[in-house]
Automatic annotation (TrEMBL):
Function: Cotranslationally removes the N-terminal methionine from nascent proteins. The N-terminal methionine is often cleaved when the second residue in the primary sequence is small and uncharged (Met-Ala-, Cys, Gly, Pro, Ser, Thr, or Val).
Record localization: Cytoplasm
Record: residues binding a divalent metal cation 1: D240, D251, E448
Biased composition regions of type Basic residues, renumbered to the chain: 74-90
Annotated binding of a divalent metal cation 2, by residue: D251, H320, E353, E448
The protein, known as: Methionine aminopeptidase 2
Catalytic activity: Release of N-terminal amino acids, preferentially methionine, from peptides and arylamides
GO biological process: proteolysis
GO CC annotation: cytoplasm
Cofactor: Fe(2+); Co(2+); Zn(2+); Mn(2+)
Length: 467
């Protein structure tokens, strides 16, 4: 690039005035004309005033040279364009362990939908009973964008936290470490620690983290006073936890094993759950969903230490519908064929889960208590202990009808609560949930998703790339 031409020289040499075109008194060239010949100065390709326009167009300017007419080719000089730096959007990634609030990962405030599945056959609205139509009018909430976004947010929290569990949980960790990791992750992603009175009812855990091993099929969580259990290489671990936003609970579970021996057991239960999801739909009878689950589940077998075991569907626990702030509604879906003609209805929310076992398939209560749930309509008026009444107020204020555990009470700073809990249970104010076990030495697995029976499709709200 040539040196920049001064502004006053530009005006004199190429402004079009008569003086600029005359020959010099001694017959010399007009000032600046030599630059067109020599290639120096600002007329070549490289130089230019900042005021000149861009482009490569040439123009011819006549210049008098001692009686001869010549042409000076001037080229409009290129201006170097300043490229504006594009502002790159900063993509916020989730940390490990997950602690970045979800509203920072999704700044738009809109969360991804679950898997959308068509119904196997369109629901026959003309055949619906008047009663079910009236019930549906009270469940139009599934078409409310705000509610759907709340549900999808809860589902995304579940996906991100369970991804961390699947990547990091290994033999040698204690179940307490795992449970606290799950629950701390859920609360961090929701941006709500749940410690302020009533804040856990805005968003938080849908129920205590279930970490059931081997023959313990369901409803075990580490609680204060329990001997801490260390995860072993041969263990089969069922991870079951819920996330809620404004009372809408995502209930989803998966099973982890660290030995390929149990792969077929896990495959059987996962296949059975997916079959239940595919079969479920508006106007579908519950007995048909149960029959499809059992057929798939019991087509598998697993070999453990040289012995072949048929995979059996567990008979003492069921899938269920979900209500707002209540993990268990009124409808139940067994994993074995029944004669129940009850139909699934539009607007309902179901936790489609299945459990398979190498044991008998009939469960019994084990020692200890997994968690507690406040009974609807229960009144503390007849409670004999003042401590029980105070505890009832704390439970009502922080959990409502959401299932909680002793670990959650201690996290709130509640002390000396055991007598109060016992009183609330004995008077029917609280329901206690013990762990459920099959025969010792057996192994069990669980997979579960939450589905929304919407008008045009069913949304598997908790579906992810993992299961």
């Amino acid at each position: 690039m040539g040196s920049k031409t001064l502004d006053n020289e530009d005006d004199k040499g190429f402004g079009g005035s008569s003086n600029s075109s005359k020959a010099d008194s001694v017959g010399g060239e007009p000032r600046g004309a030599h630059t067109a010949r020599d290639g120096d100065g600002s007329l070549g390709d490289g130089g230019g005033d900042e005021g000149d326009s861009d482009g490569d167009d040439d123009e011819v300017v006549p210049v008098a040279l001692t009686g001869l007419e010549s042409c000076v080719k001037t080229t409009k000089k290129n201006k170097r364009k300043r490229t504006k730096r594009k502002k790159t959007k900063t993509v916020v990634k989730q940390s490990s362990p997950p602690r970045v609030p979800l509203n920072q990962v999704f700044p738009s405030g809109e969360y991804p939908s679950g898997e959308l599945l068509n119904y196997r056959s369109p629901p026959d609205s003309s055949a619906r009973a008047t009663a079910s139509e009236l019930r549906y009018l009270g469940r139009r909430h599934l078409e409310d964008p705000a509610l759907l976004n709340d549900y999808r947010k809860a589902a995304e929290v579940h996906r991100q936290v369970r991804q961390w569990v699947q990547e990091t949980v290994k033999p040698g960790q204690t179940l307490t470490e795992i449970a606290l990791g799950v629950e701390d992750g859920v609360r961090a992603l929701l941006g709500n620690d749940g410690l302020a009175p009533g804040s856990a009812l805005v968003s938080g855990m849908g129920f205590p983290t279930g970490l059931s091993l081997n023959h313990c099929v369901a409803h075990y969580t580490p609680n204060p006073g329990h001997k801490d259990i260390v995860l072993q290489q041969k263990d089969v671990l069922k991870v079951d936890f819920g996330v809620h936003v404004n009372g809408w609970i995502v209930d989803s579970a998966f099973t982890m094993s660290f030995d390929p021996t149990y792969d077929n057991l896990l495959a059987a239960v996962k296949d059975a759950t997916d079959t239940g999801i595919k079969t479920a739909g508006i106007d579908v009878r519950i007995c048909d969903v149960s029959a499809a689950i059992q057929e798939v589940m019991e087509s598998y077998e697993v070999e453990i230490d040289g012995k072949v075991y048929p995979v059996k569907a567990v008979r003492s626990i069921c899938a269920h519908d979900i209500k707002r702030y209540r993990i268990h509604g009124e409808k139940q879906i067994p994993f074995v064929k029944t004669s129940d003609q009850t139909k699934m209805e539009e607007g309902e929310i179901f936790a489609i889960e299945t459990f398979g076992t190498t044991g008998r398939g009939y469960l019994k209560d084990d020692n200890g208590i997994y968690g507690y749930g406040l009974q609807r309509g229960a009144s503390p008026a007849t409670l004999p202990l003042a401590t029980a009444k105070r505890l009832y107020k704390t439970i009502q204020e922080n959990f409502g009808t959401i299932v909680f555990c002793r670990r959650y009470l201690e996290r709130l700073g509640v002390e000396r609560y055991l007598a109060g809990l016992s009183c609330l249970v004995s008077h029917g104010v609280l329901e206690a949930y013990p762990p459920l076990v099959d025969t010792k030495g057996s192994y069990s697995a669980q997979f579960e998703h939450t589905i929304l029976l919407r008008e045009s499709n069913k949304e598997v709200i908790s579906r992810g790339f993992d299961y």
